[in-house]
Each structure stands twice: as structure tokens, then as C-alpha cells.
């Protein structure tokens, strides 16, 4: 039974999965649009929604939380608080969308684009 088990493992151990999610988060914030597999995009969506809530508030504690989630990358945290936070200040949720693109040529994995709305 799979009661109260959330998230996907993506075929990786925990350390690798956490590092992958942090790298995807950082890339999505920097470029505002990335192309990845559908499973990774679906796993990334709730994480970006949660940290966007911190960026909208923009307090010192929220900035420290963002630093924790984003590898202490000050450039990314500044962009979250100064650019993306004010952009979505009045929005209640749904900051990103996942669009299906097709299939990857090498292994026929379903590919998606995840971008800010």
C-alpha cells in the first residue's frame, strides 16, 4: 500500500535526487523556462510553488530559507526576491506550467517544458 507517500524517487538515491531538484530549481529561476523529462518537471512543480511563496513575502527569514533551498546562490535568491516575487505578488498560486513537448530522440523519454506563467 502507498498511503501518505508523496513525491517520486526518479530512480535515484536521496542525495542525487535532492541535488537534481536543486539544480533544476536554480536553472528554472535563472532562465525562467527549461526543457526536461516529464517526470522531473512534475516533481519540480510543487517545489517551485513552495519557494515562490517565500519569495513573495521577502522577509529576512524567507531569504534565508531560499538560500537553504538554492545552494546559497545569492544571484538566484536576489532574482527570486526582486524580480519574480513582485511579479507574482497578487497571484494566489499556479506560478509555473508544464507543457508536453514530445519524445526525446535517444531513448524516447517524454519531454516537457516547464516555464513561469
Automatic annotation (TrEMBL):
Pfam families reported for this sequence: Ribosomal_L17
Q: What is this protein called?
A: Large ribosomal subunit protein bL17
Q: How does it assemble?
A: Part of the 50S ribosomal subunit. Contacts protein L32.
UniProt xrefs under HAMAP family: Ribosomal_bL17
Query: Which GO biological process categories is it annotated with?
Result: translation
Q: Name one GO cellular component term.
A: large ribosomal subunit
PROSITE patterns tied to this protein: RIBOSOMAL_L17
- In the UniProt record, does the keyword Ribonucleoprotein occur? yes
The domain of life is Bacteria
Q: Which GO terms describe its molecular function?
A: structural constituent of ribosome
Q: Which UniProt keywords apply?
A: Ribonucleoprotein, Ribosomal protein
Family, as annotated? Belongs to the bacterial ribosomal protein bL17 family.
What is the protein's species of origin? candidate division Kazan bacterium
